[in-house]
Amino acid sequence: MICPFCNSERTKVVDKREISSGTVTRRRRECLDCNKRFTTYERVEELDIYVIKKDGRREPYDRVKLRTGISKACEKRSISQDTINEVVDRIENELRQMRTIEIKSNVIGEKVMKELKKLDKVAYIRFASVYREFTDVTDFQEELRILLNEINREAKINGN
């Protein structure tokens, strides 16, 4: 591995962790020349699938695009980049298990919604407002009402 700071090929692994249920290996490395540390990730090769958009267009799946959408929803929330990467990894694993090369964009959007709802309610509402194309405050209020009902139901089940 080449050091991104000094381009040296002399690096060593100082820490290795499996993340995202063992589908990603995170390695913390140290350059033996400049002594700076950096992180690398090893994951299964990118998905060879196409996303079918609402208008019928097909485009190659793009991990960066998915990650960017989730990151925007999580802006100014206390959610780490590692956590966002784990969410993307979980969604990709679900897509792989579908065993098809064409997946509708709404399937991916619903998977993102499910993950964000568990992770952070504010990020969930932010994503929902774009994904579900809220046109006015009424749409926003309706989504909040549904979310609050679910939270109240869960609290009753858990005895809170």
Low-confidence spans: pLDDT under 50, at least 5 residues? none
Instruction: Please give the radius of gyration in angstroms.
Output: 19 Å
Count of structural domains: 2
Question: Distance N terminus to C terminus?
Answer: 51 Å
Task: Supply the number of helical segments.
Answer: 5
Mean pLDDT: 90
Name the shape in a single word.
globular
Quick one: how many beta strands?
6
Structural class: alpha+beta
Strand portion, in percent?
Answer: 15-25%
Order of helices and strands: EEEEEHHEHHH
Major sheet attributes: 3 strands, antiparallel
Describe the fold and architecture:
The chain is globular, with a radius of gyration of 19 Å. By secondary structure, it is of the alpha+beta class. The protein has 2 domains: about 1-45; about 45-155, no CATH class. The strands form 2 sheets. The protein has a 3-stranded antiparallel sheet, with no helix packed on it. A 3-stranded mixed sheet has the order 5-4-6. The chain is built from 5 helices and 6 strands. It is about 45% helix and about 20% strand.
Write the layout of secondary structure elements.
Blueprint: E1 11-19, E2 24-31, E3 37-43, E4 50-52, E5 58-60, H1 63-73, H2 81-97, E6 102-104, H3 105-119, H4 121-131, H5 137-157
Parallel strand pairs: 4-6
Antiparallel strand pairs: 1-2, 2-3, 4-5
Quick synopsis:
This protein is α+β, with helices and mostly antiparallel strands and 160 residues long. The chain is built from five helices and six strands; from the N terminus they run βββββααβααα.
